[in-house]
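For practice. Supply one:
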Amino acid sequence: MFTLSLGHLFGLFATLAAFVALAVHAARKVGSAEGFSLSGRRAGTTMIAGSIAGTSVAGASTIGTAQMAFSFGITAWWFTLGVGIALIIMARLYAQPLRASCLETLPQYLTQHYGRAAGLIASAVSSTGILFSAVASAISGVALVSVLFGLASWQAGAIIAALVIGTVFFGGLKGAGLAGLLKMAAIGLALAVAGIAAVILLGRLPNFAATFPLDPWFNPFAHGVSETVADVVALLVGMICTQTYIQAMFSAVDTKTAARGTMLAALLCIPVGLPCVAIGMAMHVVHPQMAAIYALPVFLVTEVPSVIGGIGLAGILFSVVGSISGLALGIGTMIAGDFGRGLLKIRDGHALLWLNRFAVLAVTALAFAIALANAGSQVLAWNYLSMALRGAGVFLPMALAVFWPGHLKGHWAAASMALATLAAVCGRFVFHLPLHPLFVGLAVSAVVICAGMLRKRLRQA
């Protein structure tokens, strides 16, 4: 345990106060369900970038990356690099058709092409996968607050949950976007300083080559080529199928703004992992016996000027909060839009707004309950699993809807989503197959889709 100096506390609480002020400011302008979930469809480039980057650059991108780099080195960079590549693909290929649809959720988009059953299945599948990403951020946040203030895990979890609720429960997507912009500035400043300090520390090692041999420390496939490729593909597919990022594009004032905001978010996310890798490796030298998950926060406290370190700690804390906020908001929007408006036929705007808010509250509570039961587990593992589960069943039907609409019947699309997700889950948790769950799900999805398209052709013949 260590003690935070006055400089750390000043930087930490001044930055946290700025975050809270932004959330309160955003809350004053939210009076409807659309204003809560889509910023009234008036979001500009920077707001979209803030919403997406604020969710993407979270516990996995910072604490989780340093945690993995502490043990394996450069291979930990794959996460933020993969996030950036996925966002570039979304900006170039998906932003325009999705925003042009003028819808609110990904399941609504799939409902438009395949019918209500497909939309409801997509909503349930996406929500489950997104929940696991929220769990990963919650694990990071609990570790951060516990080590900083010497609190029990449940106390740290309660504090972070309260911050999540304050950020998004009242401010919605606008609150998450404003907080995301400030958070990226705080993290960028702190990681730039900390990354330079870590590189200097590593450069002064008299036996650097002996301490960090090329394999595994500078081997990008230190976990194995097949496993690394599978995780990165899962990340790409999962990002493209995530309501949270699509929701930010739906909130744009027009299609070009949606693409520009998503591209800007990609450029913000990619470099974040590199200083975290350097920090993780530096802490491997300075504190080799330390629990790897504490590498980044301890470095910010012990190796960086105190005020900058405090700002960085606040930025990381709110990266966790912003991620959980954005992910919970994505699930809440699907519950309100797809089940509330679509299935239960709720038409009152205020009722939908409160349904969305209470869904966010329930998701946040569930994410922290799971996180507390799995404290200390590998953060990036939860994220890769999340991406695989949310993309296994949804990716191929979604791609067909965007790029080749009208060629797959709705009941076949619904069947492919349900069976592919079931196969991915059973393959991982029931049969413990050596094959990555994403590939199990995609294979089943492809077989069902091909069968449906073949049957359609035979009937036409």
Q: What stands out?
A: The chain has 22 helices and no strands.
